[in-house]
Amino acid sequence: MDAREAAIQAAIENLNSGVFPSQRAAAKAYAIPRATLSARMRGQQTSQTSHVYQQRLT
């Protein structure tokens, strides 16, 4: 897991536990795009995992 993914996961955990009052506040605190955080909260997969079947293994 890279640093950006770790920040997104931490923001989601803190939002669910009530540390932040809004997605906007969590996104700002972790320096991640609000739209990315919102999409992840809705259950959207990362672009890497959603396109894994398109990756060629050599």
UniProtKB/TrEMBL annotation:
Annotated GO MF terms: DNA binding
Residues covered by the HTH psq-type domain: 5-47
Pfam families in UniProt: HTH_psq (PF05225)
Signal peptide boundaries: none
Superkingdom assignment: Eukaryota
Chain segments carrying region Disordered: 39-58
Biased composition (Polar residues): 43-58
Protein name in the entry: HTH psq-type domain-containing protein
Organism expressing this protein natively: Setomelanomma holmii
